[in-house]
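Predict the assembly for these two chains.
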Amino acid sequence: MEAKMQIATQTATQTALNTFVHETGAWVASQLEACTRCGMCAEACHFYQATGNPEYAPVWKIELVRRAYEQRFTFGGKMRVAMGLDKPVNDNALEAWSKIVYEACTMCNKCAMVCPMGIQLGPIIHNVRAGLSDAGLVPEDLKTAVRKQEEIGSPLGATDSVYDQRMEWVADEWEVELPMDVKGADTLVVFSSIEIMKFPENIAAIAKILNKAGEKWTLSHKAREVVNFGFYEGNEHLTKLFMQRVFDGARELGVKRILVTECGHAYDALRWTAANIMDVPNVEITHVAGYIWQLVGAGRIKLKQGALDDKGVITFHDACKIQRRGGHIDEPRELLKILAPNAFREMTPNKEQAICCGGGGGVIAIKEADPQRYKVFEMKMEQANRVGAKTVAMFCSNCRLQFTDGVQKYNPPFKVAGMSQLVADSLVE
Amino acid sequence: MSAFTITPVEKGIMRCRHTAPMNHEDVRSLASFLHDYRGKLLVDLTGTTGAECMGNLQQFRPMMPTTAIFGAEIDPTVLEIPESYYTHEVKYFQTEAEALAWLREQ
């Protein structure tokens, strides 16, 4: 029995190492060689800032890949192991790093913003997750959500019938038309499970905006889930499978664009990652944050000037994957200049330099990550309180879930709101 | 007049009493309340029937905070949803005393 377990462990370690080595092409090697271990990335990481734990420094998070690379490909690395100066990667190391990269990293990539060598730490940490995923060392909670998405099409339990029931309920109670499986529509709208289960008003809000704009849009049974828990896990096979469902829906309906709703990681996966790992249909992939502003700019929808000015200070939380990664930094602010020209205040830091809410990258799904997740939220809450916010608005439902949970725990004096809802409530009829 | 009333029970617990069939406006108001509310919920169905509120209970279930329900016979399966990181516990009780006792322990 013991011998069998040892073999299994060795296999896991070897599997992870193989993945690290496989992922270590010239680009990753150049990134690893460029790192001077200056530690500036540590100060940029919200988990390090919130806890002071040196293991949360991004440079340490990529240490596994660095060791695998050096011990396999460099003379110095091989010598250090031979002389006992460096430990070879083993099962204990893998388990330790599993906790670090899944439970204390949201893949927000702010560390890359401050790296003087321009090292893209986020994608390398993703490689660490890929190795751990192949080795079967994914936290149980995250694994459960991933399996649910694989088996029933949704990590949060939105099966085919639940999806239909929820959409019917939203259409009926919010009195909005929700076109389904319309061939030849221009825009395929794909919601996340979080919106479907927890924030159904978001569905109504986006529908109201698109209907008002006269958009030819549709939902799709085939493409009914935009969230990608395979991407969180670092499992390329499942990442592709979940995106394939969306692309199949888009192809089947012949749409011109896929509109990603309030989900950050899904936008990153569909917009950028997909093109590097699979065949992507020839459609525009855009995010609702940018698209709503396009509709305003084109005069297809009009908003009530100052509609939110009498509701106290409103601030905007920048979602890592939508604002920093996706570049939709100006559009929400332009919208807020119309809706709350006098009440809008920026938190500090903001825009590209904003810190993550603490719940992204699958962290919110992992119970064991709660202590550090809440610590990060405390920082975010303090930033909002410093500007006297009565409302914190955002364009990401995962961030919104983290904020809603944090607000429940700490009871700060602000409300949490989805930007699409604020826009929908302020449409000129 | 709204189909539900929200009144405080004690610190951290509010009573949501369902009193009449809900129209669209009521559903939207309740959804909005659930998003902004930060405590635990005591759902009082004494002013309604199980048949009348089951559909809405089922749809509101994923959005509910920690909740104890009592006051009308309902099929407990409408409260069953796949356990997930975003869900809170929601339980059905025969009496208000039982419901409140459980809620206080959460």
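Residues 66 and 89 of chain B are 5 Å apart (CA to CA). Chain B touches chain A through 18 residues (CB under 8 Å).
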